Amino acid sequence: MAQALVRPLVEGGSLRGSDLIAVVGREPSVAHLQSQLQSEITVISSSDPRMHEAWEAPVQLLAVKPQQLDQVAASVPTPPAGAAPLLISVLAGVTLERLQSTFPGRVCVRAVPNTPCLVAEGLCGLAWGCDVTSEQQAWVRRMFEPVSEVLELPESQLDAFLALTSSGPAYVALMAEAMADGAVAAGLPRDQALRLAQRTLAGTAALLDQQQLHPAQLKDMVASPGGTTIAALRVLEKAGLRSALIEAVVAATERGRALR
Q1: What's the pLDDT tens digit per position in 98-140?
Q2: Residues 87, 103: contact at Cβ < 8 Å?
């Protein structure tokens, strides 16, 4: 995710690769990431003596697993008085309050991007911590706008936002796989079935978005009386697909809250 966010800024000229330091957890990962980036970005491990340079940067992007937060924080120096660097966290469930107590002397922002950022079709929710200036807010928006639609939300809504948008691609991928399996069972070749399932989902999403249709409107447009679609919808309703998706989003929201 960090690569997906930083790369468009470097390629578009908003940032210079030579001004960036990427920190990875283990030394063997350094060469691998450096080859992936193919830029002037300096890549170091967390044990590198140059770590202090990364934590002195005016803008810091924190993109680790929530369970690694305390381990990372143990080696972080407090910035000099008056410096107040900007810390942007993409950690699921970790609140602004916890970030600000864990990283004193920094101004914190919570960002919740999703994986479609990798193809510049993402969504990103932002919640501002205390003392974030308007200039810093503008900088953060510029960071995410090349790869996503940006929404500013109350922090209380970020867990639900994550459950829908960040976990959502997994739900959609599962549906694509299942739809393709059904088509294979009905006689289509596997590669063709997968391609058709993906294009059906992508085209449907575009239609809903571009024509601003309520999902029920589109469903009714497709389901003619006594036809094939209504027969399929009847099976999905009996199987509890609607309820399962609702409960999945709620479960993901609750899990995000448990990570605090």
Answers
A1: 999 999 989 999 999 999 988 889 999 999 998 999 999 999 9
A2: yes
Would residue 187 be called left, alpha or beta, if left means φ above 0 and alpha means ψ between -120 and 50 degrees? left
Backbone angles phi, psi at 165, to 5 degrees: -95, -40
Measured in degrees and rounded to the nearest 5, phi and psi for residue 100 equal -70, -30
Give CA–CA dist 218/203, Å, rounded: 12
Which alpha helices (DSSP H) does the chain contain, by range?
Answer: 2-11, 28-37, 51-55, 69-73, 96-102, 134-144, 158-161, 168-186, 190-210, 215-222, 228-239, 241-258
Per-residue model confidence as pLDDT tens digits over 69-106:
888 888 888 887 777 899 999 998 899 999 999 999 89
pTM of the model: 0.88
Q: Please tell me the distance from the alpha carbon of residue 253 to that of residue 250, in angstroms, as a whole number.
A: 5
Beta-bridge partners for 112 = 125
Amino acid type, 96:
L
Torsion angles phi and psi, residue 147, rounded to 5: -120, 0
Decide if 143 contacts 9 (C-beta within 8 A).
yes
Per-residue pLDDT reduced to its tens digit, 83-92: 789 999 999 8
